[in-house]
Amino acid sequence: MDTGLTGKRAIICAASKGLGRACAMALAREGVDVVITARTVGPLESAAAEIRAATGVTVTAVAGDITTEAGRAAALAACPEPDILVNNAGGPPPGDFRNWEREDWIRALDANMLTPIFLIRAVVDGMCARKFGRIVNITSGSVKSPIATLGMSNGARAGLTGFVAGLARQVASHNVTINGLLPGPFLTDRLRSNMQAAADRLGRPIDELIAERGRASPAGRVGDPDEFGAACAFLCAASSGYIVGQNLLLDGGAFNSMMG
């Protein structure tokens, strides 16, 4: 399909690897000039070079912590009038809520709720004025089906989802959409790292554990990050302006519900 995105500009957060990188590559393939952010310079520059070589678009790498004011300012300085914003950040650690202090909760809220809100605030009025904007928040399947050990993630991401539910309806008439992408397990470096730790602990092959994780979903496998990127490009397409305030779950059917 023709997404109508050629020549648009995007900011994609946490895009040096994993799902953020997949979204950046998918948008670049549609002719979008992208600004990608991440904390670590080496992997970020490597991702930028790969996307640039594969697509020929302008790719700007901005190293920094997007959860800080300085990190957000740097990204916005590189692309002050984005047509597309993809919010993304790693989730807080698992654990028992009895062990979490106020500072732990604040870090989780800063990364997974407040940073996306501040970035949206910085760009949404300009999008409305230009009569085009696509904002995609990468959250988690736990927004629909909470995971007991991920209480901070459940709470912070659900807070963002609730905020967006109201704002999305306020800006939709300006051809600005805000939607969520909710991943289940995808074959990213983070999943491999977690599975490797489990494999080492259990004395089993990592590929065996990944296959077992995949069999937990009706699809019988874990997701390919390219599939996630394609879903992001679809939500950002010019023809997707009637998709407003939705949360698209990509988990291979693991969440069992008639109503999504």
Overview of this structure, please?
The chain is an alpha/beta fold. Helix content is 47%, strand content 14%. The protein contains eight helices and seven strands. It has helices spanning 18-29, 41-55, 69-78, 102-130, 151-171, 189-202, 206-215, 225-236, and strands spanning 9-12, 33-38, 59-63, 84-87, 133-138, 176-183, 247-250. A seven-stranded parallel beta sheet has the order 3-2-1-4-5-6-7, with helices on both faces. α6 (189-202) packs across α7 (206-215). The mean pLDDT is 95.
Quick summary:
With 260 residues, the protein is an alpha/beta fold. The chain has eight helices and seven strands. The model has no long low-confidence stretch (mean pLDDT 95).
The chain-level structural class is alpha/beta
Quaternary state of this entry equals: single chain
Give the % helix: 40-55%
N-C termini distance:
25 Å
Strand order in space, largest sheet: 3-2-1-4-5-6-7
Rg, rounded, reads 18 Å
By DSSP (H or I, 4+ residues per run), the number of helices equals 8
Q: What spatial form do the alpha-carbon principal axes imply?
A: globular
Query: Could you describe the largest sheet, including whether it forms a barrel?
Result: 7 strands, parallel
Helix/strand order: EHEHEHEHEHEHHHE
Overall mean pLDDT: 95
Q: Please tally the β strands and state the result.
A: 7
Percent of sequence in beta strands: 5-15%
The low-confidence runs, each spanning 5 or more residues with pLDDT under 50, are: none
